[in-house]
């Protein structure tokens, strides 16, 4: 892919954009955040104040097109779904702009974010728990180096717990 990938931290000013994306047909069945603007504003305020996660917008060649949540597993609802370590991180993502769907951008974007997360030297594992029905994203996670572990019950979905081990990722993409 001959495009520049960049990530910028989300601010409250990004609320309208994110709210629009959360109401897209390809997003809301898996994110369950197709709320009224007022309720989404409250949700975003809480998410931005949550110290165990960081929210990002993803850009391709300067155009905003994706949303990312990176988080520390410790303190998250998934913490007790496996034997987690102190520096395990997790990731959520969505492509918000329809024009970018089906173009093969998900894998290089995910690879860039996972590489960024592994910049924390003590992080040996990145987890994901995509909605078990989201076959497209599960396929992308597998291509990136994630291994399916088992289904997990979460408050808003049944997810497929997936692990990306540092050694596997580096061997696949950096070796």
Describe this structure in words.
The chain is α+β, with helices and mostly antiparallel strands and 175 residues long. It has a single domain, classed as Gcn5-related N-acetyltransferase (GNAT) (Aminopeptidase). The chain has six helices and seven strands, in the order βαααβββαβαββα. A seven-stranded mixed beta sheet has the order 1-2-3-4-5-7-6. Strand 4, helix 4 and strand 5 form a beta-alpha-beta unit. The protein is globular, with a radius of gyration of 15 Å. It starts with a strand and ends with a helix. The relative contact order is 0.15. The model has no long low-confidence stretch (mean pLDDT 96). Residues 5-167 form the N-acetyltransferase domain. Acyltransferase required for the direct transfer of medium- to long-chain fatty acyl moieties from a carrier protein (MbtL) on to the epsilon-amino group of lysine residue in the mycobactin core. Pfam families: Acetyltransf_8. One of its GO terms (molecular function) is N-acyltransferase activity. Keywords: Antibiotic resistance, Transferase.
Quick overview of this protein structure:
It contains six helices and seven strands; from the N terminus they run E-H-H-H-E-E-E-H-E-H-E-E-H.
